[in-house]
Model the fold of this input.
Amino acid sequence: MEAAELVIVGCGPAGATAAREAARAGLHAVVLEKDSIVGAKRVCAAGLRPGFCAEFDLPREIVHYDTPRLALFDIHGNEHALLFGPGHTTTREELDGTIARLAQREGAEIRTQSLFRELRPDGDGAIVEYADARDGARKYITARNVFLAQGATAVLDRTPLAYDRWRDGLMTTLQYRVYLDTPAATIAYQTLEMHYYLGLEGRQIVGWMFPKRDHLAIGLGVIGKMEGAKLRAELDAFTQRVRERLYRDVRIRRVKVEGHLLYMGEPRPVLAAGVAMVGGTAAGLVDATNGEGIYEAASSGRFAAESVLAHRNEPHRAASRYQRAVKERFVRRLQRRVKLMRFLERRPERFGLLFEQLSSTPRLPEILHGEKYGRTLRDRVFLSVQMTRFLLRAAR
Ligand SMILES: Cc1cc2nc3c(=O)[nH]c(=O)nc-3n(C[C@H](O)[C@H](O)[C@H](O)COP(=O)(O)OP(=O)(O)OC[C@H]3O[C@@H](n4cnc5c(N)ncnc54)[C@H](O)[C@@H]3O)c2cc1C
Done:
């Protein structure tokens, strides 16, 4: 049977980064990706945090706009602007496609049209079964370690990685790519917009407008399910409001509709079992306050590659090391983000209070945005004072 040191399932930012970094260090890595073109079907607003390209050694050409403004809109539609970064926008075709190409250049093998089916323990490693859509055959690879990175739709129910609250965290999203005949207002191309409001049926909605080279990505999400026609009505109403502000008199050439699930709950409690590791959105590594998951996904891919390299002949130790690294770096922060989001949703007026404080205290978003290990004692004191201030205001 064919053998590989690391089999990776899914070629999103998590899987592709793992493949690139593992192959660069000389590991034999094979990626199984169900789509025929990497990234072509990904539905995403594709906003990247400041410094993303430098941190993951990616070419600047994938960046469409540097966005120095983050505009947070509260439930009354009031705008609270923060200057940061700048953040960046791209598309997933370019981001995932680029990381995958770079991974191949390092020697990783990326097999498209390969649908992962099953993982079985086998001695010190595992056997991975997949369906090859090109010839319809079932194929098998023995792997020393496996990195599962199938995104929000990952089915891990009957594995030791199952998490019974997974469905509670799933969010239904719908997005329009709006192609305009002439550009929208200049400010649209300098801003990442996030909107938090109550929808037509009183449900909490998170909406966004992110500018791209040839279109505006305007979308929204709602926790749980929503009937297709209602979701479409929500998005139409939201898009109309964005249009009034940013491109009222511009002719629309074309609108592309796309939808997908996003996970916005707590991370899975178990991130490694046997020789298998789970990463990216499949592990629940998404910030529940804003849907950011690309950075977490790519970072988890990096941790997976580093762990396998550190224990090249001890796959169980590699998986345990991976779990420790991801927990230390992300899990507590993401759990806190879920709590914060649920706290805000219980009384949606709180969104406005928080945004007001963030925009009038520039040091606050700056510290929050940085990673925990980079914070000084002064930063931590400042943060707890600000947090107490917010809680006192929110409790009134
Ligand atoms: C509408 C929307 C907007 C978003 N906007 C942003 C944003 O602006 N910024 C941000 O940081 N994050 C955003 N996110 C979140 C972001 O998309 C995810 O966090 C990120 O894609 C996670 O990467 P991943 O590699 O874990 O999984 P994915 O990117 O989902 O990749 C999973 C890959 O696995 C493949 N796959 C799935 N099942 C199988 C199988 N059985 N066999 C083989 N291959 C399989 C898929 O085809 C896919 O290529 C958004 C998400 C949505 C839905």
